[in-house]
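Input sequence (567 aa), recorded before submission:
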Amino acid sequence: MNDDRRAGRTQGGTGAEAAPALEPEALREAALEAKAWPLAEARKLLERVEKTPPEKGHVLFETGYGPSGLPHIGTFGEVARTTMVRHAFETLSDMPTRLVAFSDDMDALRKVPLNVPNREEMEQYIGLPLTRVPDPFGTHPSFGEHNNARLRAFLDQFGFDYEFASATEYYRSGKFDEMLLTALERFDEIMAVMLPTLGEERRRTYSPFLPISPKTGRVLQVPTLERNVARGTIVYQEPDGEKIEIPVTGGHVKLQWKPDWGMRWAALGVDYEMHGKDLIPSAQISSKIARILGKAPPLLFTYELFLDEEGQKISKSKGTGLSMEDWLRYASPESLQLFMYQKPKTAKRLHFGVIPKAMDEYHQHLRAYPAQDAKAKLNNPVWHIHRGNPPRSTMTVSYQMLLNLASVAGAGDKETLWGFIRRYDPEASPETHPDLDEAAGYAVRYFRDFVAPKRRFRLPDEKERAALADLKGRLEALEEDATADPEELQSLVFAVGKAHGFEPMRDWFKALYEVLLGASQGPRFGGFIALYGVRNTARLIGRALAGELVEPSAETAGDSALGQETG
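Predicted structure, token format:
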């Protein structure tokens, strides 16, 4: 899918006609009552700005990004969620809004990430601001600019309306000068907040101001020896012993990150920002510093952290968890937004296994949307994902079903799946059902990379063998595939299990999945038979009873497609 289409999808469609928009009066009334968390946040923000209207004339949303490593999916999640709150606020208020994605690219390189080339060469640049570290990828003037470009490219794919801001540019251009001078003037008050949070050794050398050495270009963690408020300067000592006086303005220094965060809120007038649970103490300190500088801190929203498959926090430097590229290889961008929308205050495991469920749940919400009343629509995640204009789903076959179809068909490309889909739904085509066409491609890749290596077929026991033979016979007695109804087929499968004494019935369906699909879980089996074909399913059962499915090699994974009909 090209970038233009992807951007347009999130704005309002997936190629299918969008559902009718809500009338403004009904929309606002529903927005005041709906329980969806972005609307709850928007109502809190509206109450705040109505009491104290921002002097700048607009409401400013901010997301922060530390470009010490390559952009990761958590960064995307923060922008996606903030955008949802922004849209909810705009539904409630006519006050103008802006969203700034701010990069802390003047921070020093503290360690070399594990997932970059030329790691040994990069060691010599530790301590330099990220925008002065050469780009190991060779595509941009600096490592910071490379990571900034990566971030912007990914956010642009999703059609986010944001303004990018660079700490390096803001410090050097003077946009922070007024607040930096105020911080110099109120140095002792800032120190009184910071020092109790530090260990004894760190207290002796701590200063909120970090000089950028004119000798080495490095960010120096050194104490401030003298302050001159009238001249706007500080004096510090270089590692070689020389004392140097430099201005705190114009990019000659930067602030330690907690004072920096509070200073940025004060300088820009940030009204709303999200942060991870691990930053709660830092946010509290930064809020105090913003008040010291004479400004109110923003309304803050704390979200839980993403975990990897082992339940550990995902790490930018180690490259654990999923990247945005990983997700988009196997599923739609909208499914990723749904994952970000759901339960932001609950820690969730973010790994490849969650992708199929997210894909199917997204389309379930899409299908439900048109029949819902106004309040239910605003509680539906797709209203927030598509900024009030969700499309109609053309996904007539679930992603999980496509995965199982790819498994039994040994599909190497989506055209193989379309052979079955066209028989199941003769009116469907890649042109009329773009969601389904795209999902077929995703499913083939996901099957090849994750399902096929883990399939473990087994032989049926005697009870299962008798039931499978019975099911095979009943399927062979049915009429043409075109007349097969998924519900009738599901009833037939259920009746076979009941006739052979399976109790609980899930044991029968588990046997079907393990023997025929090589997995412990699977689709609604009647729908699977309708899609794969009555005759094909009967033949599949015959092969399972003959032991032909057990332990297929990787080289012959496609052999199960032999002897089946696709149209």
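Checked by second reader. The chain has two domains: 1-173+304-374, 399-561.
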